[in-house]
Amino acid sequence: MKRIAILTAGGDTPALNATLFGAVQRANELDIEVYGLIKGFDGMLSERVPHVRLNPLFTTIPELDPCLGGSIIGSSRAYIDPEQTEVLKEVTSRLGRLGIQGLVCIGGDGTISGMQPLTEFFPCVLAPKTIDNDLGLNHIDEPNEWVRDETPDGFTYRHSHSRDEVGLGEIINYVTPGYATAVFVVAQSIERIRTTAESHRRIAIVEVMGRDSGSIALGAAYGQPDMILIPEVELDYPTIVSRVRELYDLQKHAVLVIGEGVRDSEGQLGARSNSFDPAGNILFTGAAERLADRLRSELGDSYFQKNRRHDDARSAVFTRKVGHTQRGGRPILFDRFHAAQLGGKAVELLSREQNNFLATLQYTESTGFTLSELSASKLRDRWGTIHAREVHPSLYSTRRFQPSELGREYLQPIFTHAIGHEDLEMLHARLFHPGNLVTRYQSFNIEIQKRIRTLDGSS
Ligand code: F6P
Predict the structure, then answer these.
(1) In a 10 Å sphere around its CB, with 0-12 CB exposed, 13-18 middle and 19+ buried, how is residue 155 labelled?
(2) Are 134 and 108 in contact (CB under 8 A)?
(3) Distance from the CA of 11 to the center of ligand 1, in angstroms?
(4) What pLDDT is stored for residue 232 in this prediction?
(5) pLDDT per residue over 332-391, tens digit each?
(6) 3-138+331-388+420-451 and 180-327: same fold?
């Protein structure tokens, strides 16, 4: 292969530029030109195919800095509808006119599905990313555990686990770039919420991202919350309320972390609005507030008034969303390193024309982290659907509302050395640099704009 395209699709992560960097560095070694398509699949859907040459003369452009969060080529949730064969043909012809021989998509489960129809026309591979840590399998047979039930509106899927436990070495794509930095942000947020809840005798409910996966919530254990509630386990209100009471009686405050996708017997607390993003993903909103309302009514005003701790339940229970800060900013060392490695691996797969494959990160105690690969078809269930990876039941203790022993074993290889010395040095040198008070933020978009070219040669 002489010329390939690369794009970043779906929600951004702090490690996208690191993956791009690793991909381009490997392409330089292999004498492959890399064109970065602007704003994910949107770039190829546009007739002008805006793009940036990321390695003119096989030298990485200076704007591509692996320490920078976000994506210098932009991202979007646009995907190509596999039914629209005309659009697919047009896209193929446009990329052909640019001399593109293969495509690397940096993305998650939605991106693999978006990439799939293109694999019929030219080789495509995926370099994984997502803060949700939900791209992969707990074990290779997991897709076969899904059961599909018919409903009046179509289908719903149920996960019927066949295994009580998984071995860490069995996990396919152990962790996705972006996850470690997201947990880094979340753990610090919890520490900070803790001291204010503690001082003001309040119950804090901290909502973290992750959609249907409780992986970020599980990792939040590093911030030492009192309880973690994950979407994979249906909320059992009586047990939760009694645990909150015990904690509050003992320590006069409590900190709960919930994944935004948590659900009770009536469904997902934050998904009841039924609004969707352009890629068809349900938008989660308000799970923490709904749980707070439930706790307020179950505990009641008198519970807080009796020891003069609060005037009412409303002021005693409060919620905070960590929000998009967990998706942005500088990636920590773990993410930077492995994202770059996976980017390089994806280019190698493409250079070998391993169509419809993804680069993966594996872990065993004896080897540490190693790179591998998987055919995307292995992620699909018997109906062809790719499901978001859930936190396996063996990683979470429903009794303690914390990671189980295996859950702790799972987290440690990722986080024990996740922060590099230079991460701390950057904080020290940059955050309160006097220059920040006088220099405006320099957006990479300004420099990249100067490099954007289009199919008709205009800029
Ligand atoms: O999939 C990544 C993610 O950050 C989810 O955790 C979250 O639900 C969603 O994207 C938020 O998307 P948006 O930025 O479009 O609101």
Answers:
(1) exposed
(2) yes
(3) 6
(4) 98
(5) 999 999 999 999 999 999 999 999 999 999 999 999 999 999 999 999 999 999 999 999
(6) yes
Q: What angle do CA 27, 32, 38 make, to 5 degrees?
A: 80
CATH topology of domain 3-138+331-388+420-451: Rossmann fold (3.40.50)
What is the pLDDT at residue 456?
85
Tokens 């008034």: give the residue: 305
CA distance 118 to 125: 10
* Catalytic residue, candidates 12, 42, 109, 132: 132
Q: Residue 25 has what pLDDT?
A: 98
Q: Is ligand 1 within 6 A of the CB of residue 130?
A: yes
Q: Is the CB of 134 under 6 A from ligand 1?
A: no
CATH code for the part of the protein at 180-327: 3.40.50.460
Residue pLDDT, tens place only, 431-441: 999 999 999 99
396-397/402-403 β-pairing: antiparallel
Q: Does 12 participate in catalysis according to the annotation?
A: no
pLDDT at 82 over 90: no
User: 256, 255, 253, 248: which is closest to 230 by C-alpha?
Assistant: 256
- 3-state class (DSSP) for residue 360: strand
Listed residue (52, 48, 103, 107) closest to 77, CA to CA = 107
CA distance 223 to 206: 11
Round to whole Å and give the CA distance between 322 and 213: 16
**What are 52's strand-pairing partners?**
36
Greater confidence (113 vs 458) lies with 113
Strand partners, 106: 8, 127
- The strand pairing partners of 206, in sequence order, are 257, 320
Q: Closest by alpha carbon to 182, among 69, 18, 31, 277?
A: 69
Residue length of the chain: 459
128: tokens are 């994984």
Nearest C-alpha to atom 11 of ligand 1 is from which residue? Answer: 11
Which pLDDT does position 407 carry in this prediction? Answer: 98
DSSP, residue by residue, 133-148: --SSBSSTTGGGGEEE
- Annotated domain spans of the chain: 3-138+331-388+420-451, 180-327
Percentage of residues in the chain having pLDDT higher than 90: 92
148-162, 192-206, 298-312: range with highest mean pLDDT: 192-206
Q: Is the pTM of this model over 0.85?
A: yes
Cα 179 to ligand 1 centroid, rounded to whole Å: 13
Give 438-447's long-range contacts (Cβ < 8 A, gap of 24+).
444/63, 444/68, 444/70, 444/72, 447/63
